[in-house]
Amino acid sequence: MLPDFNDLDQFRAVLAAAPEPDGAARKAAEAHNSQLTKPPAALGRLEDLAVWYAGWRGEPRPQIAAPQVIVFAGNHGVTAQGISAFPADVTAQMVANFEAGGAAINQLARAAGARMDVVALELDRPTADFTEAPAMSAAELTAALRAGWVAVDRDADLLVVGEMGIGNTTAAAALCHALYGGEAADWTGRGTGLDDEGVARKARVVEQAVALHKPQINDGLDALAHLGGREIAAMAGAIAAARMRRIPVLLDGFICCSAAACLQAVNARALDHTLAGHQSAELAHAALLQRLGKEPLLSLGLRLGEASGAALAIPVLRGALACHSGMATFAEAGVSEG
Ligand SMILES: Cc1cc2ncn([C@H]3O[C@H](COP(=O)(O)O)[C@@H](O)[C@H]3O)c2cc1C
Ligand SMILES: O=C(O)c1cccnc1
């Protein structure tokens, strides 16, 4: 059973009690890796990925059999400030598209052999416009974290989380500016395709919002409440639930990583069970990945969200484990060691 939480302090306590990887399984995986029929380290980063995954699953020779993709959707009051190239109605329209199987992530999840779930969070009740008021109350944030927390399949052996929410690159930029400082413009990109004038307006919105709320922000959950969105909070809740179940997580683009950053700001080790699936083309994703200490698996110029980049990385991790767990050792294959 997962522990439960009813308020933000209980969620902070859950994060503080997060489990660590299984040291014995990790050691056994390292020893096994060193005996496989290949020159030492010839599979490069795949070898580290396999050992990392084995530690989290507590199995020296695991496979990925049941990956789960969850796309969370939410609406944002800050869209009133003209910060997206698309209207807010697109969020609900895309949820219908996900449910009908017509979006990019439907194809990528299927191609990766992953189960896909869509969780829409109160789309007809957008968050407050955070240039004027906190985006969410503590109770609303708790509810959104819980929606993510309960969406994780207990039998999944890999989790990919992503999002849909017109305006959410503004929320993600504001979260990064609040957590890491610098200039608002450093964290503000084009999102769905703003022109230069639109990006300048968006950066002013980010700057104004962070200046308004910064005095009330003491950790990542305060930042999420003031500047986040329901789908961003739900991604954070799902990432935390996966940790409790020792399910490794592939992070998606800028918005997903802003959710992860909020967890890391509460507990420095909260993302140890996660990898960066890809580096998005959104302006600040590279800088955010650096802050998270994550090296992306892929960099394909995607700037879509929806979990698309992380879903594409599933076969990379699966390939790492197929080699690790399926290859013969030198002794088994009768191959001479160097
Ligand atoms: C048709 C369509 C499909 C999408 N799928 C993901 N996003 C992406 O774009 C949005 C963020 O960009 P901004 O902050 O500029 O609104 C998010 O919903 C994100 O997932 C989409 C956007 C559109 C228009
Ligand atoms: O990096 C992302 O995930 C992203 C970038 C632009 C628009 N939507 C998502």
UniProtKB/TrEMBL annotation:
Keyword Transferase on this protein? yes
The catalytic activity, as recorded, is: 5,6-dimethylbenzimidazole + nicotinate beta-D-ribonucleotide = alpha-ribazole 5'-phosphate + nicotinate + H(+)
The protein's annotated pathway: Nucleoside biosynthesis; alpha-ribazole biosynthesis; alpha-ribazole from 5,6-dimethylbenzimidazole: step 1/2
What are the transmembrane regions? none
Task: Give the enzyme's EC designation.
Answer: 2.4.2.21
Q: Which InterPro entries match?
A: Nict_dMeBzImd_PRibTrfase (IPR003200), Nict_dMeBzImd_PRibTrfase_bact (IPR017846), Nict_dMeBzImd_PRibTrfase_N (IPR023195), Nict_dMeBzImd_PRibTrfase_sf (IPR036087)
* EC main group: transferase
Q: Please report which protein family the annotation says this sequence is part of.
A: Belongs to the CobT family.
Described purpose of this protein according to its UniProt entry: Catalyzes the synthesis of alpha-ribazole-5'-phosphate from nicotinate mononucleotide (NAMN) and 5,6-dimethylbenzimidazole (DMB).
Q: What is this protein called?
A: Nicotinate-nucleotide--dimethylbenzimidazole phosphoribosyltransferase
- Gene label: cobT
